[in-house]
Amino acid sequence: xxxxxxxxxxxxxxxxxxxxxxxxxxxxxxxxxxxxxxxxxxxxxxx
Length: 47
Fold this sequence. Notes:
mainly alpha, 3 helices, globular
């Protein structure tokens, strides 16, 4: 569920991690750590 929420936020923000973190109401560094944990690449969401 958390992985899906992160992917959706990155899709909405076109891969902008700081905006995605704001949407998810978490710190940008926390988002980065979670992306590494779930092996999510930000570049996959670029427009």
